[in-house]
Amino acid sequence: MFLKPSQISAEPLSLGSLDCDLVIVGGGIVGATLACGLKNSGLRVRIIEPQRQVEALNRRQAYALTLQTGRILSKIGPWDQILPGISTFHQISLSDGDHPGIVEFTPQDLGTEELGYVGEHHVLLGALQEYLQDCSNVQWHCPAHVVGVHYLENWAEVELTEAGEFLTLRTRLVVAADGARSELRQAAGIPTRGWKYWQSCIAMTIQTEKPHNNVAFERFWPSGPMGVLPLPGNRCQVVLTAPHAQAHDLQTMAASEFLKLLEYRTGGLLGKLELLSDRHLFPVQLMQSQRYIQSRLALVGDAAHCCHPVGGQGLNMGIRDAAALAQILQGAQERREDIGNLLVLRRYEQWRQSENLIILAFTDFLDRMFSGDWLPKVILRRWSLGLLNRVKVLRYLALRIMTGLIGRPPRVIQ
Ligand SMILES: Cc1cc2nc3c(=O)[nH]c(=O)nc-3n(C[C@H](O)[C@H](O)[C@H](O)COP(=O)(O)OP(=O)(O)OC[C@H]3O[C@@H](n4cnc5c(N)ncnc54)[C@H](O)[C@@H]3O)c2cc1C
Predict the structure, then answer these.
(1) Residue with the nearest Cα to atom 41 of ligand 1?
(2) How does pLDDT run across 61-81, given as a tens digit for each residue?
(3) Nearest-CA neighbor of 114 among 122, 105, 103?
């Protein structure tokens, strides 16, 4: 059971007698990235994760990773180990249904060598887990379950069960990296704003007959956007968005019928398709926590915000949260500040909350503008895609957002 701060009274305790400086609750990609970022900070980190490490790798999902994510992980994480197992894309192609007008972005538009990457969950998390094995300041509690958190004035106490034992960790800061339904956020009484979309997502991996040529494409259909992300080998991750009932039908219809539809929607570019995974259905929501922090608690990743998967931004935002928080905590530690103090944590909130809001608004705009078949909207979106083709500065701006190159970059990549 989680307790709210007001229910607890503080007892004096010297900081030296705390078990650690930071407890990260949730050892997913965002939680693990934060721990990597604190490798040389001198801070003692514990990670609590309810799944065994091998089980946590089992999620069948792939993510579009922005250029900025690549830069962050190459400075604070195992990018050299990740890169051979993921694909790099050199073209992004946007189009409206089967309308012939196509917008193609290339690295020349941005002056970079590539436009992004696509990585599978097990490749990313597996490399992070391995990297953390060599970090002597990081200790895992896994599988372990948090049963209570008490926030006191000068420290927090995290109660957990691990291998049938009950443990209490005294720490200066607790970080919630426990995903969209964050129990820590809810127990702390941090309200959220947002809405559930009228659509759900169906995600799957497919085998393609023709090579994907490292092109990532997004096609906008009246039911919602469809993203096709190139994976190593002749494989792609497909994410379709559709109103709930339609999404359910797409998940349950016969595989042969579904593949025919997909071949039509990919315009025959990838040839005959085969399903390599189940079709997973996800609800879609936009959510922003009203606060990312309170005394002795910080939220990162999906615990702090969630967005529509169009444009593939959710995990990338979480990785930027992790890099920003690592930078702030390391700086505070060097200045001998209390890392769980609100004054320190506020620097993180001020930095990340507004930047994430821009991405939430961007993905919401994309979904609203590029779904539906109301004629004036169809005309407007075809016109705006045409504009993207013609106006260089617009292309550049859209690409900066898509590749994560907006906002204040963490110091590690400046
Ligand atoms: C269909 C779909 C496609 C997507 N595509 C992309 C994409 O292309 N690019 C992109 O950037 N994003 C994408 N996203 C978003 C992305 O999946 C999420 O933003 C990302 O997984 C969030 O990572 P996280 O580590 O914050 O949370 P999670 O991945 O949810 O990890 C949370 C971790 O906390 C653990 N945990 C849960 N509860 C507790 C607890 N009580 N105590 C301790 N630990 C706990 C879990 O076991 C897990 O390990 C997509 C999402 C969907 C649904």
Answers:
(1) 183
(2) 999 999 999 999 999 989 999
(3) 105
CATH placement of domain 5-58+123-194+287-393: 3.50.50.60
Confidence band for 97, pLDDT divided at 50, 70 and 90:
confident
- Residue boundaries of the structural domains of the chain: 5-58+123-194+287-393
Phi and psi at residue 286, in whole multiples of 5°?
-110, 130
Residue 92 has pLDDT above 90, yes or no: yes
Ligand 1 centre to CA of 133 (Å) is 22
Ligand 1 midpoint to CA 31 (Å): 10
Residue with the smallest CA separation from ligand 1 atom 15 is 314
CA of 301 to the centre of ligand 1 (A): 8
User: What is d(CA 130, CA 77) in angstroms, rounded to the nearest whole number?
Assistant: 10
Tens of pLDDT, residues 187-212: 999 999 999 999 999 999 999 999 99
**Nearest protein Cα to ligand 1, atom 20:** 315
- Which residue owns the Cα nearest ligand 1 atom 52? 309
Q: How far is the CA of 222 from the centre of ligand 1 (A)?
A: 27
Report the alpha-carbon distance of residue 57 to residue 200 in Å, rounded. Answer: 24
The CA 315 to ligand 1 mean position distance, Å, reads 7
Give the span between the Cα atoms of 240 and 98, in whole angstroms: 15
Q: What sign does the dihedral 39-411-348-360 (CA atoms) show? A: negative
Asked if residues 202 and 280 have their Cβ atoms less than 8 Å apart, the reply is: yes
Tell me, what's the pLDDT at 5?
44
> Looking at per-residue confidence, does 413 or 10 come out higher?
413
Token pair for 27? 């050892």
Name which residue sits closest to atom 3 of ligand 1, judged by CA. Answer: 309
